[in-house]
Amino acid sequence: MELIITRTYYPTGTNGKLYVGDDLLCYTIELPWRDNEPGLSCIPEGCYEVTLRDSKRFGRHLYLPHVPGRSFILIHPANSALKELRGCIAPVNQLTGYGTGFPSRPAFGRLVGIVEEAIGKGELVTLEIKRVN
């Protein structure tokens, strides 16, 4: 299964649209692009494997294990990239500003359910990130 994020970059955050195939599922928020600096930047455009992961902090969430120059890049709930993200991606139902959106948990829940189902069927799940502007 292929997920696609089309991004628009702003000085204070990155906004995206997340598609499952051709269908828009939700929006995304991320940190602004800052040359892939760990903890300060969104990740580079490209194609990444998506896996399931569990932790005490986020419970069940999505993990991108092979991001160049980065580690522990997750997809998890958040409503403000600058306040809550360190390079990860947060799905949201609605964008409210540059790198901000609301609510995140319902969008996140839908996304995890879709990915869990695909992985349960033995499918490889990938995320392609590309620029719109």
Automatic annotation (TrEMBL):
Domain DUF5675: from-to ranges: 5-116
Name recorded for this polypeptide: DUF5675 domain-containing protein
Lineage: Bacteria, Pseudomonadati, Bacteroidota, Chitinophagia, Chitinophagales
Top-level division of the source organism's lineage: Bacteria
Species name: Filimonas lacunae
Pfam families per the UniProt record, alphabetical: DUF5675
InterPro entries associated with the record: DUF5675 (IPR043732)
